[in-house]
Design brief:
The complex is a heterodimer of chains A (274) and B (250). By secondary structure, chain A is mostly helical. Chain A has twelve helices and no strands. The longest helix of chain A is centred in the N-terminal third of the chain and has 42 residues. The longest helix of chain B has 14 residues. The chains are: A mainly alpha (274), B alpha/beta (250).
């Protein structure tokens, strides 16, 4: 009887713990959509295409932030993905090379590295020499944040391919780059693509590395060498303002940010499941 | 001239000596079996012949292997691997490629044929040579992973033959197959040895006796005995060989 009770209590405890872990996530999702969707409905399409209105004035939108975010995500992907893929390939293919071992350790540390420090680093090497915050500096900071995710997933994807397939490739006289890119990476497409999407999704929501790099602006010229807005930065600054319409806009921006994040992240997760 | 001449070959992984002073001569257009119990070094010896063993970390090789008179260690790796094809223990066609591409890919990469009709011809020829064409001719564009184990292994043989090698290495090619598929592969080996030098590694003395003309018995990195298959099986000179072929060790 006692054993059955213990077993029952264990199951209840596990379910309760799981619920406790999941509830905050659903609460975040719920409150973002609950508070944000009415804002989008009220502001209409202009919310995506217009600029920030003056305080306590109706209308307006977050276009400069969307433009800045998408530009920096795109730039950082163009910079980061090739670099990270080659790094992952190097670590997986030359596991005994001292540089490869060091790179693996550095990437593991970078995965957990405080991203604000990445921002400070890029500020020192890009922002200060350039004399201005810029989309380029923001994209570079995001690249550094993205690198370890994509590289680590690429490495794991390559390692997951059984060795005899690589041997078969080499036994056919294929060169290393063909074995890696035409056989191993294609066979490990799922793991590799997941890493890629998780890396991009991760940087799409980053705020800290942009504070000292992109700078943030409410109106931008769109030039890459000038300060840029970003959705998370706008949310961060808007909620600190004492104006009701800015708080509204922050909720709407949160929905847009979450949608971009989920649009990148969910296909990645679905791919892993399939 | 012999197809392969192994001279004073030694191989170590770090401190572990896996092959100890191997000397063998493999004549042209025969099936030469390397047999021995698990862990005796027979797969390692086979992978020396196309230098695949060098993929391993910390491997040290001394001695020489000559392929039709030329040292394989001074040969361009791509050329060596075109001349020496290999079939593995696990049937391993590339699962993300179609049946056609499995055969055509290395043909195109190695520049053997560039035009589509030339590649098509080679693919068909290789699939026929490996006795798998009739099984797959209607579905060349489907993924190779859809095939049965035996068909996959014959596809792997076709993939190797498409590069027009002179030597075919087979590392326990039937170890993962059902008896009927294994029988078909053995029949195929009997056909292939008329035109190619086939070196087969097997842990089964029965298979060595069925398919090979010559055999070498490897035990703990040493060649214990070698010679014509009939002689080695019917009149083994070494006690270990006798124990192995009669199933008392293995």
């Amino acid at each position: 009887m006692l054993r059955i009770l213990k077993d029952y209590l264990f199951v209840v405890f596990v379910i309760a713990s799981a619920a406790a872990a999941i509830i905050p996530l659903f609460h975040i999702l719920f409150s973002v959509f609950y508070n944000g969707i009415p804002v989008l409905a009220k502001y209409g399409m202009e919310f995506l295409t217009d600029t920030l209105p003056p305080p306590n004035k109706a209308g307006g939108g977050i276009f400069p932030a969307i433009y800045g975010s998408l530009t920096m995500i795109l730039l950082s992907s163009l910079l980061g993905i090739p670099l990270a893929v080659f790094a992952g390939v190097f670590i997986a293919e030359y596991p005994n090379n001292p540089l490869s071992r060091a790179a693996r350790v550095v990437l593991m540390i970078m995965l957990e590295f405080p991203t604000i420090l990445v921002g400070l680093f890029v500020m020192a090497i890009v922002v200060i020499p350039m004399g201005t915050f810029s989309a380029i500096a923001g994209a570079m900071a995001l690249t550094i944040v993205m690198l370890p995710y994509v590289a680590t997933y690429t490495e794991q994807a390559i390692r997951s391919v059984p060795r005899h397939y690589k041997e078969a490739g080499y036994a056919l006289g294929l060169k290393k780059f063909r074995v890696v890119f035409s056989i191993t990476l294609k066979m490990a497409k799922k793991g590799f693509m997941t890493g890629l999407l998780i890396g991009v999704a991760k940087v799409s929501g980053e705020t800290a590395p942009l504070i000292f790099t992109a700078g943030n602006v409410w109106r931008s010229t769109g030039a890459l060498n000038e300060p840029a807005g970003a959705i998370p930065l706008w949310i961060y600054y808007l909620v600190q303002q004492p104006y009701a319409n800015y708080h509204e806009i922050a909720w709407g921006a949160a929905v847009v940010l979450l949608t971009i994040f989920l649009a990148i992240f969910l296909p990645g997760r679905l791919m892993v499941r399939s | 001239m012999s197809a392969i001449k192994i001279e004073n070959l030694r191989l170590r992984y770090g401190e572990l000596e896996v092959l100890k002073r191997i000397d063998l001569e493999i004549p042209e257009n025969v099936c030469y079996a390397i047999m021995g119990p698990s862990g005796c070094g027979k797969s390692t010896l086979l992978k020396v012949l196309n230098r695949l063993v060098e993929m391993n970390h910390n491997v040290k090789i001394s001695g020489d292997v000559k392929l039709f008179g030329n040292s394989i260690f001074r040969m361009d790796l791509t050329r060596l691997r075109r001349e020496v094809g290999m079939v593995f223990q696990i049937p391993n066609p590339f699962p993300h490629m179609s049946i056609y591409d499995n055969v055509a890919y290395a043909v195109k990469c190695n520049g053997i044929a560039k035009k589509k009709n030339e590649v098509d011809e080679i693919v068909e020829w290789a699939l026929k040579k490996a006795a798998v064409f009739d099984d797959v001719k209607e579905r060349l564009k489907t993924k190779a992973s859809q095939l049965s184990g035996g068909q996959m292994q014959r596809l792997c043989i076709a993939r190797a033959l498409a590069l027009k090698p002179r030597v075919l290495l087979m590392d326990e090619p039937t170890a993962n197959l059902d008896p009927i598929s294994a029988g078909k592969i053995e029949e195929l080996i009997m056909e292939l040895k008329k035109e190619y030098t086939v070196v087969i590694v097997t842990h089964s003395p029965g298979q060595a006796a069925r398919v090979s003309d010559f055999v070498a018995f490897l035990y703990m990195g040493n060649v214990i005995e070698f010679g014509k298959t009939e002689e080695v099986f019917e009149n083994p000179k070494n006690e270990l060989t006798e124990k192995y072929v009669t199933g008392r060790i293995g």
